Amino acid sequence: MVVDLGKRLCTCGFWQLSGMPCVHACAALARVRRPDEFCHQWLTMEAYNNTYAFHINPIPGQAL
Questions:
Q1: Which chain positions lie within coiled-coil regions (predicted)?
Q2: Residues 28 and 35 sit within 8 Å (Cβ to Cβ)
Q3: Which of 7, 8, 20, 36 has the fewest CB atoms within 10 Å of its CB?
Q4: What global pTM score does this model have?
Q5: Cα distances (Å, whole numbers) of residue 21 to 1, 47, 52, 56, 57
Q6: What value, to the nearest 5°, has the Cα angle with vertex 39 and ends 24 and 47?
Q7: HSE of 15 in the Cβ direction (CA atoms, 13 Å)?
Q8: Bridge partners of residue 9, in order along the sequence
Q9: Structural domain boundaries of the chain?
Q10: Are 45 and 53 in contact (CB under 8 A)?
């Protein structure tokens, strides 16, 4: 596989499709940078925690 970190590309195509570095890119990133710097911001734990920070209460009288 060929990885281009500058363009965020890998010939396997996973990175382009998912927005997350593939295993090939992670191997290259482990040598030079942190892989989390190359993931979309929506895929971070901070974004996950912000998404589920609020509670959604059920509507009274509705069957669940």
A1: none
A2: no
A3: 7
A4: 0.55
A5: 13, 18, 24, 33, 36
A6: 145
A7: 23
A8: 4
A9: 3-51
A10: no
Helix (H, G, I), strand (E, B) or coil at 39: coil
Rounded to the nearest 10°, the torsion over CA 26, 27, 31, 34 is 10
SS3 label, residue 37? helix
Contact 21, 38 (CB under 8 A): yes
Residue 39 in tokens: 């993931």
What pLDDT score was predicted for residue 42? Answer: 86
Task: Note the pLDDT tens digit of each residue in 4-60.
Answer: 988 989 999 999 998 888 999 989 988 887 777 777 788 888 999 999 998 888 788
State the pLDDT at residue 12. Answer: 96
DSSP 21-35: --HHHHHHHHHHS-G
